[in-house]
């Protein structure tokens, strides 16, 4: 029977702090955004969602609201959703410009000034998010949940780009990405009722600690446990020298692949974690207990769900992997039953 190795055990955490949801034709535009330049993404997810268009003839506007009908495609049929949204009293004579195939829109004033523009799918997601917030305790929540399940993004591929000292970002990798082009080609051929999306992810690093001085036996002496505590504290919690950003990105990518089992990934699908992998060897050098990825796409102003063939649609995905087998070492969370072990 395995025992807890140290009195104080550590897990390395990576929490999604920001995400950009876009399509391939928007990659270059994003590069020019000041916010993205200051915090570029290194992890990306390629995903698939039902094709969404707008019925331009449905557009109605008065001095308080506008309404639109969205078409959600599934094979040769459509689900229709009508949304009514408030508008600013300062906006007058607004009209909709939404040419075929009606997947992009622009709201324009009479003089031709563009008030807002973008992808129909993103406008629908934004409208759903607004409806969710104002109907928090309303019976419409079930409708919202069902609609978000219908619109959930299927994770097809997880990748990363880091380079030397973070010099290479996800946009660089995606500019000429063979797997992305393969996904586009096969999706257009086999799933023409769906669109391909790219989710660029920013993560924040954290250290999770549990302390359990109540065990009768540990894997090491109290003195060695104390040395481990100070070693991890000094290397990770003080100067961040213990786990580099590159290796943090590496184990985040690997954990996401193992969790979602994306169709177009091969590496890490069945062999993460593994102490023979040099790409995240620093975790083993520090003798860390676990890694945890917090992937929440319940973001401000834009909420959407993720799923894969073996993971149901959800806003929040808490991904936990012990770096050591159950036979050799207890999970640091086992006593408190905080996380179900693999």
Report on this model:
The protein is α+β, with helices and mostly antiparallel strands. It is built from 9 helices and 15 strands. The protein has a 7-stranded mixed β-sheet with strand order 14-9-2-10-1-11-15, sandwiched between helices. A hairpin with a 5-residue loop joins β7 and β8. The longest helix is centred in the C-terminal third of the chain and has 17 residues, at 222-238. It is elongated, with a radius of gyration of 23 Å. Mean pLDDT is 88; it is low at 336-340.
> Low-confidence parts lasting 5 or more residues at pLDDT below 50?
336-340
Strand fraction: 25-35%
* Morphology call: elongated
Main structural class? alpha+beta
- Main beta sheet: 7 strands, mixed
| Total of helices | 9
**Total number of beta strands:** 15
Write the SSE topology.
Elements: E1 8-22, H1 27-31, H2 34-38, E2 43-50, E3 52-61, E4 65-74, E5 77-86, E6 95-97, E7 104-108, E8 114-119, H3 120-134, H4 141-150, E9 153-160, H5 170-175, H6 178-190, E10 194-211, H7 222-238, H8 245-260, H9 281-285, E11 290-296, E12 298-299, E13 302-303, E14 306-307, E15 316-322
Parallel strand pairs: 1-11, 9-14
Antiparallel strand pairs: 1-10, 2-9, 2-10, 3-4, 4-5, 6-7, 7-8, 11-15, 12-13
Helix pairs in contact: 3-4
